[in-house]
Write a structure and sequence with these properties.
Blueprint: H1 8-33, H2 42-60, H3 66-80, H4 85-104, H5 110-134, H6 136-145, H7 150-159, H8 162-186, H9 188-194
Length: 197
Amino acid sequence: MNQNNLKAKDLITTAVFTVVFALVVFVASMTLGMIPVGFPFLVSAIGLIGGIIWTYMRVKVPKPFTITIQCIVSGALFFILGTYWGTVVGCIVGGILADIITSVGKYKSFKLTTAGFAVFCLCVHFGSFLVVLVARDWYYEYCLSSGMTVEWMETFLNFLNWPVMLGTGVLSAVCAIVGMLIGKALLKKHFVKAGII
């Protein structure tokens, strides 16, 4: 039997940690979302904390399509929880790209796995905030209709500009790499056992 085939236990493991990952994202969103100038740093926090969970998932289920499945399910959970659609699209597109990048190393290369997660974070970041700059009026009305206050929106929109978005995008990728390195350090024994280098 091909060892790369997904088994029931692989899908269960993926589902469990996908929920954990989604909860981390949700908590980070709720926490930073209370501070207008902190919100653009959301994906940086996800990269730093979520990278540890992402690392563990890659060790436990280093098989094709698990990243794509994880990110589609995560995107669905985010949408159900009321997340803006651009973030959901960024999550799914980023997951597919991360799966492709990781597959180049046959799911055994830590460098490519890390690169995949960094790309995922970049996609989520730009999916979340690019529309704010290219369709500012629409985003303003959308957020107001979703329950955000005028004061929050004005502070956020006055803070977020192209340099801030690009800067926090770079920070998101850096935090993703750091999060993966922390995860690898915490799970060193598991990495050796899985043969991931």
